[in-house]
Design brief:
heterooctamer; A alpha+beta; B alpha/beta; C alpha/beta; D alpha/beta; C: Pyruvate-ferredoxin Oxidoreductase, domain 3; 6 helices; D: 8 strands; globular; binds thiamine diphosphate; binds iron/sulfur cluster
């Protein structure tokens, strides 16, 4: 299984929830805070590093808010998923 | 009948229904769309009446043209860009001498512009609703109640003079709510009441023809003379305006529609300060109350025209005043609405000026330039 | 009497309806009224506001640059209108959503926890779910009417009774309570 | 007196009642007049003259209202279907028909015909395709043939630059609201008769309220084709029909019985 | 260059080609069609230039709009009903501030009217070429040579002011032949000469946007102020007119285009009779030579406006004269052209009147009514 | 720093260059934004950003020119194909595309698209069918489904009165100058990918000068459909696709190789 | 063979010659005189009474200028064709 | 010098071209000229006419109600324009097609058998066929120029040489003869 992660451009997200409906790993959720535009943005909640970087969320996002990353096969998987690191 | 709170667009639609409109054709465009939507909702409740959303304003105006040729009470509504698209059809309606009512809820232009209230179609509506020599009867309400009353009356006027009657308002009047007393329901026309030129099938009579075409100049001049004669009657009979405190006015405000009512607030503020300000509010923009304005111009010291445009009615004021009083202009454009404080500022400025002679009222370096300048000033000021 | 009121909030907060209620109440009390909304596509998701004028005289301008009273249902509305209220005027803001303080000293200000009150008043009818903010606009209206004294509270109540859409009938009673609680707040802050 | 001798004869063909007893302004040999006559015959046969309303186009047929003894009006260039919609919707008991050229219907007025068809307006459309703008002196129309020289395609229609001729019946027949769409021609007697039958069906479709009916008629413009009338008829056969095949492009199920009846009636 | 005999429509087309027009889009309509046909014949001879017959005037004007957005020298031509159909597009062009040239060869209206020469689109062209606050620069030639010269210049004007320039003529000028000296060939624009707003692909620069839309009233007012400021410059720089024998004129004729030249024949006949008649022929109809007319009005005793319509430029005259001289009007409609003998009859009639005071120049029962009356009179007289 | 950790990763999806780095005005979940993104990706992939010109419509996408980093302008309602014709004819080396809604293209602007197709203009048209007029607040469009409630069909679209929904791809595909006409949808990932492939082909058709290409995309309007975005996607599948079947409506012979290549490229 | 005849509304004829091209009996010709509109009208030249009243000429005439008559089978054929009589 | 000429006939008789020749000749002789035709669909099969003004001065009105000279190529043209010729003016009519007499006594009239002359002059080039009327317009023009003296015949000849379309080149010589025969007629009738 490929290891991947995503970055949500949180303030651009309009909270439409479409990404959450397509994620096969079910690692996307809507945040419980509001962004500067008044929407609850999508966030990656992937403590187990299930995101495969399949890009489905990015493909369906109407607002091009998502960037998707995948770990090259040769690189060893990092401990924590990157997006979590970002949030930190 | 008790007053109810009505949105302008919907009130106009309801007034038209009560006036017995039988066929409405239109196309959505902000800030007029509620009128169409109201018709969509209400007309199906009245069997025999027609609501149809056209594929475009071009189609809408020609559907109106068709229905009108049948002697049917009919109307359309739109806003500025849509009205431009109707201009060929409106010219045909005028040339064919059939009645129709059109509502223009003006917005900011030119081009796509925006959807905010504006009076930038004054020229288009009063001077040249399409090519050729004609004028529509143009009525400009300044309240929702007046919009209702004028709409209600417009069908009779259209039929009496076999002309296009325009209800000319702007997004503010279309969108606002005010208390309204609705007029009583009128019956729709019975077959025997249809006009004697209407196309209803050539049964027991020779076939009828309605056309705007006449290839001979002599023939077409006859049509035009008939049209002009009718317009002259309209000019005699249908000039409407409202005056407020004009008797002793040293400064006369001239403004129509939304601007007319806003000027009333400024006028009252000015009077409270002891400034002798009056208001002439043309209601019929064509025919323009030129005679009355001409009279008032001799009695006042200064005229201030206020419009939500770069100065259009201004030209009619200029032509009517004929140098009897200096004319100033204050206008905002693109959906900006001059508010009472701005108008009062202008009043203060003008009341402070020495009383000047009509000669100062130079065209060329006069009104047009001034119009632009005033607008610039107003703009940079706030 | 001549009051010029702006009610402003996010789309969905009911600013326009609150304004209509006010206009209805004014009209039914024999006043001249106008109600004019912001309109058009920019309303989508953005802010919505309306201007209500209530007067003993026929109304000239239905548009207002410096209102005598403002209801700000959210922060952007407060930011936009705080500076515009006429000196001596009234500003009601939704303290449930706005944390910052108001700096104008020349106006009367009533911070009103409208969402909070609405939550409390709506919860009973929402069968176990937590309450929601649907009555915030009416809470604010109560505060406004109380603070300005422009109409009796009963006039708003009557307008509510007359104009609440049929499908929302069951909310009439909570609306009335919300209204009075808003009025109570305004009274309490002793403007 | 001749009439005495003629009295022994039966009249087997005479000018239809619905055709006003006057001379048209059309050029000699122009089949606009012929198509008018067919429509008038149909109106007579169906007995609908008293309730028919014609919407004339802008084009050579602009004066068509002078030639039919039915009520008539004249639409802005291309807008006849919209005007007819206004008439028909407000007077559903009337038989409303438009008569339109290819400049009128296939260029400036394509939107109006498509949407009238789209709404399934109960209208009858007689569409006269003469591959040019007659009235303005022979410019290129959307239906002008490849290579055809006109005053606005002086080097012949270049299909690489302006596309191939537009086929109106093919286009309109894809729209469900257009229930009867056929192409006919008047280049010889047999086809004239077929054209008349189609026009009759088209009116019957309206009488039964089935939707929009459109009869495209290939027609001549001897003047702007710069041909004698007989050669112009030949040109329809030789040059136009290969590009605009005659035939029934849409006969909705509800219309089928009508076509049978009409054929039987011929 | 030697003179050649040219038909107006074709001469205008040739002048446009020589001025470097790169893209022509149009639709046939009498009495303008020869212009389109000439382009169809000639443009294919110049590689890189575009001729395209549009499916309608609506399409034509928007093709022009598109080409203009690319910074390409472009134009269209039509006649009255076709111009009405263009009005939405023209308003967009104005609102987007891109240059374009439009030729209107006017015919009798309203509606389908006929194809005879007329000046019935004066209002439409000078006041409201579509909705919104703008004016096109309107130039009215009275000879084929002048049509050539103005057309040739129009492209530069359009580009300088980023505006629509209208060559406004009528069927007579479009159809007549006169000797013409053609201007020299200008090179078409090279890529590096394209204006810095033109859409040519966002290569090595940020992407560019051309639009007439601005949803905020503040923003749209800015656009309008820019537009109005440019129009004010046009009013300062581009007023054009011709005068004949105005110095000592007791009666001033005011007429434009075909009517302007016909008035010259009447003027000469009057002078031969010893009548002190002069002529002001506005060439730019917008901007109107109001300043000059205002001056002349103070020097003359009477003004006679002659038009091939019911009295349209009349209003501009009225506004400019400001009561300084009484104004009469003589007009024919529907393709009728006032000929010199009719004008001389009017001159004789007016010269016989006592010199009246400006005060007689009452609006209301003044000019408009008079216009109709004059036309009626002229009509019943012959 | 996150970037340090992310540096170990490959970017497998990022916002395309041709999409301006800003937030659109579209409602949450509206697929206008999605279709924009697909176009931008195609422009990037084909490397044509420097020579592309967008003609935006009147409709919700009126501001589209703000979102693409290519030159752009804005046409009057429905006239984008005419404006694009003016641009393309005078700058044949440019890639000119229109982006139009169903009110824009299928109502007021039908004439312009038909005649642009008729002439075989080298244009790419992205036609966004959301079965309503979004911008003006959800009125009936020609593409509104039977029975669909809109603000101007408050009792549901009555096909007896206003006809059945207009099928644009079916109509345009009958015109020879339209060489590539397909209908796609963005209601799920698989279809989004197919839509993108089609848009790519459509641009390639123009790059090769083959004629007009039109990609109809079924799109949502959650706001005026009064549905959450996910449900709106479902509604495309359940309600729209049966009326507007996805598929290739015209692939002219010259275009066939392109479709093969594009498919291979996916 | 049925016996028929035709009447040409001579002053309405525009001389387009179409009728002459369809007449199976070849009994239609263009006159050598001009009508009031300046056209040479079609005329029936049928001394032998060959006209059958087949109506083809009338069907193709763009100007509805022709009336066609046919002798009922029961009636004896008259000596001279009617149109000739008319011309007389 | 200021002449206002109307040339009128059936469509196809060459009235418009004759007018153009006149205008060319005038222009090439250094005069001011205008030529203005009737136009539009009514030309089809109907009549066609043009108005030519030739003057030493810049021309005001290119339109004329009372021409100083008229060429009437057929009867309807004669009917229409006979009464309009200015007193003292010239009227040339095509006596090949017009049988009636002219009643005006205050103008100079030249009946010109233009068709007959044209038939004679064209026959030689039509290989055995009888001649046709194609030169009638030029015959009339010859008569007009002679009768009015407004230009030398050579000017018209030069205009013919310059403006006869290439495909009609072989008709140049017969045109010249037709012109001079027309002139001869006008001389003969001693206007
Ligand atoms: C808006 C407008 N544009 C153009 C014209 C000029 N015009 C008159 S008829 C015509 C074309 C007619 O051609 P078609 O419809 O093919 O009919 P035909 O004359 O061939 O019978 C045109 C372009 C007009 N009258 N109005
Ligand atoms: C001439 C004209 N008519 C009407 C309008 C109003 N208008 C703006 S957008 C629109 C409809 C847009 O619908 P659609 O094309 O389906 O696009 P969507 O908004 O759904 O994306 C209308 C009718 C206008 N701006 N101009
Ligand atoms: S699809 Fe995009 S806009 Fe929608 S919730 Fe997910 S990240 Fe946000
Ligand atoms: S121009 Fe052509 S279409 Fe028109 S009447 Fe003449 S022949 Fe017929
Ligand atoms: S109104 Fe509809 S189409 Fe427009 S942006 Fe919102 S969801 Fe999209
Ligand atoms: S009826 Fe038949 S046979 Fe008689 S003239 Fe006519 S075509 Fe000839």
């Amino acid at each position: 299984m490929a290891r991947g992660t995503i970055v949500v451009d949180t303030n651009r997200c309009k909270g439409c929830e479409l990404c959450t409906t397509v994620c096969p790993q079910q690692v996307l959720e809507m945040a419980d805070f509001y962004n500067t535009r008044g929407y609850r943005p999508a966030i990656l909640v992937d403590p187990e590093g299930k995101c495969t970087g399949c890009t489905l969320c990015a493909v369906i996002c109407p607002d091009a808010v998502l960037t998707v990353y995948r770990l090259p096969a040769v690189v060893k998987a990092p401990r924590a998923p990157a997006a979590m690191a970002l949030a930190a | 009948m008790a007053k109810e709170l009505w949105k302008g667009n919907e009130a106009i639609a309801e007034a038209a229904l009560r006036a017995g409109v039988e066929a409405y054709f239109g196309y959505p465009i902000t800030p007029q769309t509620e009128l169409l939507e109201y018709m969509a909702r209400e007309i199906p409740k009245y069997p025999g009446r027609v609501f149809l959303q056209a594929e475009s304003e071009l189609a809408a105006v020609n559907m109106v043209y068709g229905a009108a040729c049948g002697g049917v009470r009919t109307m359309s509504s739109s806003s500025s860009p849509g009205i431009s698209l109707m201009s060929e059809g409106l010219s045909y309606i005028a040339g064919t001498e059939v009645p129709a009512v059109l509502v223009d809820i003006m917005r900011g232009g030119p081009g796509l512009g925006n959807i905010q209230p504006s009076q930038a179609d004054y020229f288009q509506m009063t001077k040249s609703l399409g090519h050729g020599d004609y004028h529509a009867l143009v009525l400009a309400p300044s309240t929702v109640q007046e919009a209702v009353d004028l709409t209600y009356e417009s069908f009779e006027l259209a039929e009496k003079y076999r002309t296009v009657v325009v209800i000319l308002a702007d997004g503010a009047i279309g969108q606002m709510m005010e208390p309204v007393e609705l007029p009583p329901w009128r019956e729709t026309m019975r077959e025997e009441q249809r006009p004697d030129w209407a196309l209803r099938g050539a049964k027991d009579r020779p076939h009828r023809i309605l056309t705007s075409l006449n290839l001979t100049p002599e023939g077409l001049e006859q049509t035009n003379l008939r049209l002009q004669a009718r317009l002259a009657t309209v000019q005699r009979n249908e000039v409407r305006w409202e005056e407020e405190l004009t008797e002793d006015a040293e400064l006369l405000l001239v403004a129509f529609g939304t601007m007319g009512r806003i000027c009333k607030t400024a006028l009252r503020a000015a009077r409270r300060k002891g400034q002798k300000v009056g208001l002439l509010r043309p209601i019929s923009l064509w025919p323009f109350p030129e005679q009355r304005l001409h009279e008032l111009a001799s009695k006042t010291q200064r005229i201030l025209v206020v419009e939500m445009n770069a100065g259009q009615m201004l030209l009619d004021v200029q032509a009517a005043v004929q140098g009897r009083a200096p004319i100033d202009f204050y206008g905002r454009m693109g959906g900006m609405v001059p508010l009472p404080d701005e108008i009062n500022e202008q009043i203060d400025r003008l009341m402070a000026l020495p009383i000047s002679q009509p000669e100062t009222n130079q065209p060329g370096n006069g009104y047009h330039r001034h119009a632009a300048a005033a607008a610039v000033a107003s703009h940079t000021r706030r | 009497m001549h009051e010029e009121i702006i009610i402003s909030g996010f789309g969905g907060q009911g600013a326009l309806f609150a304004g209509q209620l006010l206009a209805y109440a004014g009209m039914d009390s024999g006043k001249h009224v106008t109600w004019i909304p912001s309109y058009g596509p920019e309303m989508r998701g953005g802010t919505a506001h309306c201007t209500v004028v209530i007067s003993d005289e026929p109304i000239g301008s239905p548009m207002v640059r410096n209102p005598s009273a403002v209801i700000a249902l959210n922060l952007p509305s407060l930011d936009k209108y705080e500076g515009l209220v006429k000196p001596g005027g009234v500003l009601i803001y939704n303290s449930s959503l706005v944390e910052r303080a108001v700096s104008r000293a020349d106006i009367r200000v009533a911070p009103t926890p409208a969402n909070a009150i609405s939550m409390e008043e709506t919860a009973p009818l929402l069968e176990g779910k937590p309450g929601d903010a649907r009555l915030a606009n009416v809470v604010m209206l109560g505060a406004l009417v109380q603070a300005t004294g422009l109409l009796p509270l009963e006039a708003i109540e009557a307008a509510l009774a007359a104009h609440l859409p049929q499908r929302h009938r069951r909310w009439l009673e909570p609306n009335g309570r919300a209204l009075r609680r808003g009025a109570g707040i305004a009274e309490a802050v002793a403007l | 007196m001749a009439s005495i001798e003629l009295a022994e004869y039966d009249v087997v063909y005479k000018r239809p009642e619905a055709l006003v007893n006057t001379t048209t302004h059309y050029c000699p040999g122009c089949t606009h007049g012929l198509i008018h006559r067919l429509i008038a015959e149909v109106i007579d046969e169906l007995g609908i003259g008293e309730r028919s309303i014609l919407v004339a186009p802008v084009g050579c047929a602009v004066f068509a209202y002078n030639y039919f003894s039915v009520d008539g009006c004249e639409a802005p260039h291309g807008r006849a279907p919209a005007m007819a919609t206004g008439l028909k919707r407000s007077q559903p008991d009337k038989i409303v028909f438009t008569y339109q050229g290819d400049g009128d219907l296939a260029a400036i007025g394509t939107n109006e015909i498509i949407h009238a068809a789209g709404r399934g307006e109960n209208l009858t459309v007689v569409f006269v395709n003469n591959a040019t703008y007659g009235m303005t002196g022979g410019q290129m129309a959307p239906t002008t043939l490849a290579g055809q020289v006109t005053t606005s395609s002086p080097y012949g229609r270049d299909v690489d630059l302006v596309g191939v001729p537009m086929r109106v019946s093919e286009l309109i027949s894809t729209i469900p609201g257009a229930v009867y769409v056929v192409r006919r021609s008047v280049h010889n007697v047999a086809n004239i008769n077929k054209t008349k039958a189609a026009i009759k069906t088209a009116f019957q479709v309206q009488m039964q309220g089935l939707g929009l009916s459109l009869v495209e008629v290939l027609s001549t413009c001897p003047t702007n084709w710069h041909m004698p009338p007989a050669k112009a008829l030949q040109w329809i056969e030789d040059a136009m029909i290969p590009v605009f095949p005659l035939g029934d492009y849409r006969i909705a199920d509800a219309v089928v019985p009508l076509t049978k009846r009409t054929r039987g009636g011929q």
